[in-house]
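User: Predict the complex.
Assistant: Input components as received:
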Amino acid sequence: MIRTAFKSVFAHKVRLLLTGVAIVLGVSLVAGTFIFTDTINAQFDSLLGDIYEGTDVSVRSAGGDFSAATEPFPASVYDDVVAVDGVMAADGGVSSISAQVLDSDGNPIGGQGPPTLGFSWGDTPTLNPMQIKDGNGRPPAGPGEVTIDINSARNADLELGDMVTVVAFNGPEDFLLVGLTSFGDADSLLGATLISFELEEARNVFGYGDELTGIVVQAEAGVDAADLTAAISQVLPEGVEAVTGETEQNEQAAEISEGLSFLSIGLLAFAGVSIFVGGFIIQNTFRIIIAQRTRELALLRALGATGRQVRSMVIIEALIVGVVGSVVGIAFGFLLALGIRALMNAVGLGLTQSGMVLLPRTVVIGMAVGVILTVASSLLPARKASRIPPIAALREDASRTPRRSLRTRAIVGAAVTGTGVALLVIGLFLSVSNPLLYVALGAAIGFIGVSILAPLAARPLADIIGWPMPKLFGVSGQLAKENTKRQPRRTASTASALMVGVALVVFFSVFASSTKASVSETVFELFPADITFQSTNQTDPEVPAVISPGFAEDLATHEELEVVSAMQFGKALVGEDEKLIGAIDPATIDQVFALGASDGAVAALIEPDTVIVSTSYLDDNGHDVGDTLTIEYLTTGAVTTTIVGVFEANDFSDFYISTNTYVANFRYEGDAVIFANAAEGVSVDEAQEAVAPTVASYGNVKSQSKSDIVTEAETQIDQALLLFTGLLLFAVIIAILGITNTLTLSVYERTQEIGLLRAVGMTRRQVRRMVRWEAVIVATFGALLGVGIGIVLGWAVVRALSDEGLGAFSIPVSQVILALILAAVAGVFAAIWPARKAARMNILDAISFE
Amino acid sequence: MTTQTITDIAARMDNGVKTYGEGDAAVHALNGATAEFGRGRFTAIMGPSGSGKSTMLHCLAGLDTLTSGAAYIGDVDLATLKDKDLTLLRRERVGFIFQSFNLIPTLDAQENIVLPLTIAGEKPDTDWYSQIIEILGLSDRLDHLPAELSGGQQQRVAAARALVSRPAIIFADEPSGNLDSKSGAELLAFMRRAVKEFEQTIVMVTHDPNTAAYADRVIFLEDGVFVDEMHDPTPDAILDRLKRLGA
């Protein structure tokens, strides 16, 4: 049987080719995701290895999870550390993520891409991962001097001896470029902009006093890093800790892996969609091939093969196709990973062109996905094949196995669809632990359910979609329409594959469109301020980056502005939990930001160590106004804080304190957001224009009107939509290949018929048209189902999220129509190959075809 | 040859050679066959298996091309036509009745009958159409799909289709080969009537003497060449002639 299976695979290689392509595409997405993230991980690992190569112990603020590693401690700690036995060398330094370098046009280097990292220059070469090679200048030696990494200097056209503008704690300042730094052999640290200053100057630029943010220590030969770490810990004050270099390296590696795992989970989700769609195609192909081979299989039965043997043969065929497809898929995944890397480099991430990493895990999972998908998809067709009676070998009409009754199909389909819908509803509207899993599973089962029901709709829908075709395209159009109605099951399952992709595209479009509609509502309600200023340097998604402290004062000097109100954010522990705390100016906030606070709450914040909390936090935690909360700040420790009021929950924070309380308890580096109103009689545009020079001088500040904010949000939503649509393209391509596949098989099956049509006078062009319009009907059918499901799914999700600011539901009509048109056009492309095949058919062969 | 004789000839083959394969494996299905088929005549082509009778029909009908020699429909040399023109010629001037698989399964009987006209984007001549339907007894079967028709009815639909565009010539390849004797006789009788009453030209390939006896004239092929012909044949005479051919 195995040999028969092998021979059969080769005999039907063209028919199986497209099935193979579906597997290749699905597997390549999976493998490509793994290869890419593994490669990046390896690259970061080796980079971290370089950075920590000489570091045995690292001394840092004990802020733990809830601080950026830039919380300072007294500089005197350095002397205590150096005095510990076993310390060979130690470098104390400061670092900051709030600095930015401007290029000659006044724009920040790196833009929205990789971050800018500022350091003090470490004098011990073994402890300093940055080097300055011969001919690249020298380290910064005093005030007014800066170094920058070679890659950033090159991108910004900076040369040794140039004056460079750095925006940090003191606003924009000019520095002399004295050195170009390398990173091991690399010119860049993954595209980040790295600047360094002499220690005292760095403290000045970053806004530190006589402080350090870290000390790196090299042990004497023979001294164990862990022992030394323990010894150093003994001399450290409270709030400062020592860890081994290895520990810190592992922490950072873990953080990077975690970040990457989000990326890989996202990519794998889309790979999953492709695989799901591939399953439809594979099952359909095997079913058609088996139908076409009925007589051959029946002959095997007549010659004594058991039903089980026939079934095994079909499954072995699937296994062969699955293995071959998976191997090719993994190879393509490799290319795909190269492509993703090139794309990431194009947006400025300096990923080196090192070798790609192919872990055994990637091969195992890739193979497993491809083989299991193919074999699982062949099970039902194989079962059908095993039930072919031997008599079918002798009788032409016996190949038609009795169809399952429509009633059974309707009942089964409705039950499956209902299960999917139920899971969706549970995931969306009930509070379960893992709602996304319910939603994904519900959607997948729902799709299968609809695909079971789809054959019931195939005939009427084909009639509707194909209605104008006989009138427009004569007999070709009529036959195209009739052909789609011939085997509703085949038409429906081919269309179902496209349905999945289109449904998800439409779902994302509906979601994006609804979000956009809600955004403008939210922005106009929440931000009464005419102009909002924010930093362009958003490196940490959790804590907003800051604008240099002097900026708000500079703004206030403009008489075109009336109210200038700054907001700050910082993380602190509230009870057990790390929370983002907002700080506002109680005197002006009401004019610029719709907090929805209770009466007198904002005014009460003027008292030190008071807080207002969101109503939802208050309710969830059983607090009342007048109670006290213990807030643990990094700088000042636990502070008993009185709740003086409540406000309606917003997306930013559950806690607001006054700016005065903030400055007393946080290290104030600058303002996260500054709101301002145009003065009486000054238009928003005029006010923006008036402050433009101030904004430009800081380089990293953007000034936005309300509609600017809406536009930016809309642009971001559109970009996300584009990205998702792009990732769904794989699934759509697989589905379109599925149409090609089905049509090729159908054309083969209708060889005699096409021969007859040609004999009685149908031209090749008419034959091509007939196949083309059939493809268009199938594609449109699938797209229509997809549009329907996508809109319903979008509506359900938007409704479920209505509490979280998604107030509006909006259907992007033009996009939906475009999707339908594109699907029809895709049908035209899908038909090219089968249509050619049909038109090229030799008439005589066709007529005498058996 | 005079102009008069050309117009009396509906189709002819002139020294037709058809070779399949190359070298030692080459098979000469036609090996210099020459034959004429008169207008308004019912001609049967007979011969043993492998004599080239089907190949001759296919080449005359423009379904296959000769290796050398010429095939004409009227005075059109088929070798000079490209696929498109050949298709148009078949559509406008040729009708077909095959042994099996004559009908498009998705179209009902009426749609199948007018198919060549529909393909050409033309409307049938209503009187002529009604007359054919009447004679073939298909009036109450017109809205049936092929799968709902008996074998005899299917072949009658095919015959109606062949006639509906009033082609210059109809080619039939074993038209009654798959039918029981009663249905076969009905079909052949109708074909004969089409020749007698409507001056239709029919060329039919068959291996059955009883079938061939419906024709006005039988030509005999052997090893790809024309060997003999017989006018106003009877089954016995044909059988007798075939026996001598076989020997």
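The longest helix of chain A spans residues 245-292.
Let me know if you want any component modeled separately.
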